[in-house]
Design brief:
This protein is an alpha/beta fold. The chain has helices at residues 23-32, 76-80, 95-112, 135-144, 160-199, and strands at residues 8-16, 45-54, 57-66, 85-91, 117-123, 148-151. Strand 2 and strand 3 (57-66) form a beta hairpin. Bound molecules: guanosine-5'-triphosphate (GTP) and magnesium ion.
Length: 213
């Protein structure tokens, strides 16, 4: 007998954070393994895909890289509202960019509740000597909002695979829990339907072992 085809999943992930923190650089490093020292501001948003195989499950990630400039803030909901996960990026040398992450967390939790998987990312760890965000503070805040904290350097290609693998696994867990809940719901519905037939006193068809007789 042919093996059942492996299940495949498609998840949408959005990157949010202040301008210049390195959102595009993280996505380009992850999807194309490239890095540029030049900053070219993202306009509105752009989109790349990446395919992964996690324990035999095929996953396609649709990664939305948004514009960090304040004038594009109002577009945020267009990109995050149907996302399975969000990656909130700050620059470890820029305290303001960490405060901006806190604003995004508030907005996402208010609009989407806890159903979205969140990661908070301190980028540019190659500039450790210029750090302006305390590691302990960033990690304690992240835990307090039920998210997971990562440190990355798009420049040195550090921490990025781990970040996307983690968020992918989290989204997979959520999707599988939803599937299990749906299956147990439909099993319950099936039992209820059989129950109603009996209450209605309709004659139960005799089981002949064949669906055609
Ligand atoms: P917007 O599109 O304007 O929102 O910016 P962004 O968050 O997409 O930032 P982008 O990826 O364009 O990077 C901004 C600048 O930071 C660029 O000059 C990058 O080369 C630099 N940069 C990004 N990641 C790193 C990093 O890990 N280390 C260092 N040193 N520089 C980085
Ligand atoms: Mg960008």
């Amino acid at each position: 007998m042919a093996a059942a085809p492996a299940k495949s999943y498609c998840f949408k992930v959005v990157l949010l954070g202040e301008g210049c923190v390195g959102k595009s650089s993280l996505v380009l490093r992850y999807c194309h393994n490239t890095f540029s020292d030049r900053h070219s501001s993202t306009f509105q948003a752009s989109f790349l895909t990446k395919k992964l195989n996690i324990s035999g499950k095929r996953v396609t990630l649709a990664i939305w890289d948004t514009a960090g400039q304040e004038r594009f803030h109002a577009l945020g909901p267009i990109y995050y509202r149907d996302s399975n996960g969000a990656i909130l990026v700050y620059d470890i040398t820029d305290e303001d960019s960490f405060q901006k992450v806190k604003n995004w967390v508030k907005e996402l939790r208010k609009m989407l509740g806890s159903e979205i998987s969140l990661c908070i990312v301190g980028n540019k760890t190659d500039l450790e000597n210029d750090r302006n965000v305390l590691i302990e503070e960033a990690e304690a805040y992240t835990t307090s909002v039920g998210a997971k904290h990562f440190h990355t350097s798009a420049k040195m290609n550090q921490g990025i695979e781990e970040l996307f693998l983690h968020i992918c696994k989290r989204m997979l867990e959520v999707a599988q829990a939803e599937e299990a809940a749906r299956e147990s719901d439909s099993a319950r519905m099936g039992r209820t339907r059989r129950g109603i037939q009996i209450i209605d006193d309709e004659p139960e068809p005799r089981s002949s072992g064949s669906c055609c007789s």
